Amino acid sequence: MLVRHRRGNVVSKCALEITVERQGPFHPGETLRGFVGVTVNQVCTCHKLTLALEWFTSGTGNATQQTTHVDVLFVGDWPVGKQHLYPFEAPVPAGPFSYEGQHITLQWRLTAMADIPWDTDPRCEQVIVVQSNGPTPIAYDPGPGALPSSSPQSILPMLIGGVFVLMGAPILALGLLIGIGTLARGDVQGAFNTLLTLACPLLFVSVGVFAAYRGSKDRIQRWRFGTLTLQHPSIVHPGGVLEAELVIRPRNHASIDAVEFTLVREEVSVRAIQNKVNSAGNRAGTHIHAKQVAKQVAQGATQLSAKTPLTIHAAIQVPPDAGHSFKVPSSQLRWRGIARIKRSGQPDIVEESNVVVRPPGP
Q1: How far apart (Å, rounded) are the C-alpha atoms in residues 97 and 268?
Q2: Pairing of the two strands 346-357 and 235-236
Q3: What are the residue ranges in the chain where pLDDT is below 70?
Q4: I want to staple 74 with a disulfide (CB 3.0 to 4.6 A). Which of 37, 49, 188, 362 is the partner?
Q5: Is residue 96 domain-shared with residue 39, that is, in the same domain?
Q6: pLDDT for the residue numbered 149
Q7: Which tens digit of pLDDT belongs to each residue from 88-99?
Q8: Using DSSP, how many helices (H) and how many strands (E) does the chain show?
Q9: Are 299 and 213 in contact (CB under 8 A)?
Q10: Residue-number span of the structural domain to which 174 is assigned
């Protein structure tokens, strides 16, 4: 069945219209067929009539786009009073797939455009849906950005703290030595003045120690608790099961209230224009919007023995409609598997790693 889509600019010497053979969604490996109709309002010359297939993003991040296929359909003159039809074919790509989230959206569209000299270039756009073909294996293309392979913890607070300590500690030590020496000679006022000047380096050291502690607090707590090893497949499919294993090796005797496994979806958007706010009120920077989509309590209250490993298994159901992982400039959809050890009156111990959600295939 032919599906006719909206016209482009009719103010120009000609107007364009896209018609496809059928309504989507379209799947990788298929061929998208249709034709571009041209209605000529005035005699004109067309330097180039093109049909492009491209993806584009919208949402809280910078808008980006990329063309995957372009056809030149016509070059020449158009007389008035006749509609011209130009067939096209475009291979449906293997990703990234259409995705509509709360903060980022990736869509596909057909764009027809005529290059008319000395006049407004008419164009026509039509959004289409590109989806996975269920269990059919494909060589999935997640976009031009490499998908994450690890989740390193930030060491920036520790580095900042170390710099502050290195700046303040030598001055503080030198001042203390001078103050003690002055006090030993009986000059109390001189010693007091010397120690008073140590307020600045003391502040530097205090800030450095605080920053270093804040940056390493989780590591210190984890070291005191023991070691954790989280293992699971790095790739899962929508509707599949994420089988995870957590091995706890406690350093000392300890008690835990529960062990939870969760699957979290993160929409990451990057707004690169500094000191600007887009129409949705989103400021420059990287925005991460996380949502828990599945959860399993795999272990209840348990007493742990020192240096005795405890292995915990979990099977987390991946939603059938889970969006496929992708990473393109300024937008990313990623998934994380998280194991959380809950303890009464103490911070949770968390271990996490990245998961790639994609269709079956190599």
Answers
A1: 16
A2: parallel
A3: 1-11, 136, 145-220, 273-284
A4: 49
A5: yes
A6: 41
A7: 999 999 889 999
A8: 3, 20
A9: no
A10: 156-222
